[in-house]
Amino acid sequence: MATQERGEKLNALDSRSKNPLAADRPGRRESPRRGRTARRWLGPLWRWVGLPAVTVVISSFVIFMALSVAPGDPLATVTGSHPTPETRALLERQYGLDRPLIMQYLHWIGGVAQGDFGHSIAYRAPVWSLLAPRLGTSLFLVAYAGLLVIGFGLAAAVAGTIWRPLSSLLTVVSGICVSIPAYVAASVLSIVFATGLGWFPTLGAGEGFTDRLWHLTLPAVALAIGWGAYLSQVARAALREQAGREHVETGVARGIPYLTVFRRHVVRNAAVPIVTVSALVVASLIVGSVVVEVAFGIDGIGSFFVRSVQTKDYASVEAISLFLVLLVVVLTTVLDLLHTVLDPRLRDSGASR
C-alpha cells in the first residue's frame, strides 16, 4: 500500500515537471522586477503630477469656501443699500448664489477647468476679460525683478566669496537692503529718480517692450532690493561653506587655478540651496508685486486684486488667488525637478521610495 502511494506521488511530480503550465496559477508570484518598475514610474508621476494637482484642487476649495463665508454682500455694488426682495432674488438666481455652496463650488471649478473663471458682479464682465490685459504687465514686472534679484544677488555672492576684502562691505550693504520694505523703497525711488531727477516716469506701465521696460524699472528695483540682498546672503554662505572644504584646498595646493576649482566644485556643490532659495524668492516676488503696483499706479493683477477685495468682487478675488496658487505650485514642482537633476542622490532616493 505504501509502495503504491509513493508511486502515485512520483507520477504526479513527473507530469508537473513535463508540463510547467499545469502548476497551480494562484500560487504564482509576480516578478519582483515588474513591481520595481511600476513603483519607479508611479512614484515620480505622483510626486510631480498627482500631488501638485491635488494641492491646486484643495487650495481652490479652501479659497472658494473662505470667500463664500466672508462678511459682506457681493451684490451690494449692484443692488445698492436697500434692494427689494424680488430684485435680490433675481440677481441671486442670475449669478447662481441661490444654490448650495458645494454646488456653487463644483460649477465654478468646472468652469475654471474649461477656462471660464466666472462673471464679475462689480464690473459686470467676464473675469478673464478683466485679468488678461493686466496679466502681462504683472508677469513682466515679476520677471524683470526676478532677473535683477538673481543676476545681482548671485554676482555679489560670487564676488564676495572670491575676493574676501569685498565680503565685509557686501555684508553691511546686504544687511541694510534686507531691512528696507518694498513700499519704502518704492517711495524713495519714486521721489528721487522720478519726481526729483525726472529720469523715470512716476506712474503707469507703458506700451510696447522698450517703453514698458523704462516704466517698470523703478518698480522692479523696488521689488528686487530686499530679496536680492537676501539671496546674496544665502548664496554667499553656501559658497563659503563649500570653499572651505578639504578637497577644494587640496585642489588649489596641487596647482589647479582657484577659479577652476571654484567653478567645478564650489559652485556645483552649492547649487542646490542656491536654486532652492532662488525659486522661493521668485514666488515671494509674485506676492510682493501687489504693494509695488499700488505704489506706482500700475494697473496689474496686484492692484486689481486690492480693488476687487475693496468692492467685494469675489469672483475676481477667487480667480487671482487660484492663479497665484497655481504659479507657486508650478515653481515648487520645477524646483523639485531641478533638485533631482543637480543632486542625483535625490533622484535615486525618490525612485527607491
Any overview of this molecule?
By secondary structure, the protein is mainly α. The chain folds into two domains: 42-120, no CATH class; 133-352, Orthogonal Bundle (MetI-like fold). It contains 16 helices and two strands. It has helices spanning 2-18, 32-68, 76-79, 85-94, 101-113, 127-162, 164-178, 182-196, 209-215, 217-243, 246-253, 258-269, 271-295, 301-310, 314-342, 344-352; strands at residues 119-120, 125-126. Strands 1-2 form a two-stranded antiparallel sheet. Helix 6 (127-162) packs across helix 10 and helix 7 (164-178) packs across helix 10 (217-243). It is flat, with a radius of gyration of 30 Å. The relative contact order is 0.11. The model is unreliable at 16-27 (pLDDT under 50).
Q: Alpha-carbon distance between the termini?
A: 56 Å
Q: Please count the beta strands (DSSP E, at least 2 residues each).
A: 2
CATH superfamily of the largest domain: MetI-like
CATH architecture group name of the largest domain: Orthogonal Bundle
* DSSP strand content: under 5%
- Radius of gyration based on Cα positions: 30 Å
Task: Sketch the major β-sheet.
Answer: 2 strands, antiparallel
- Give the low-confidence spans: 16-27
CATH class of the largest domain: Mainly Alpha
The helix tally amounts to 16
GO biological process, one term: transmembrane transport
Family: Belongs to the binding-protein-dependent transport system permease family.
Subcellular location: Cell membrane
Membrane topology: Multi-pass membrane protein
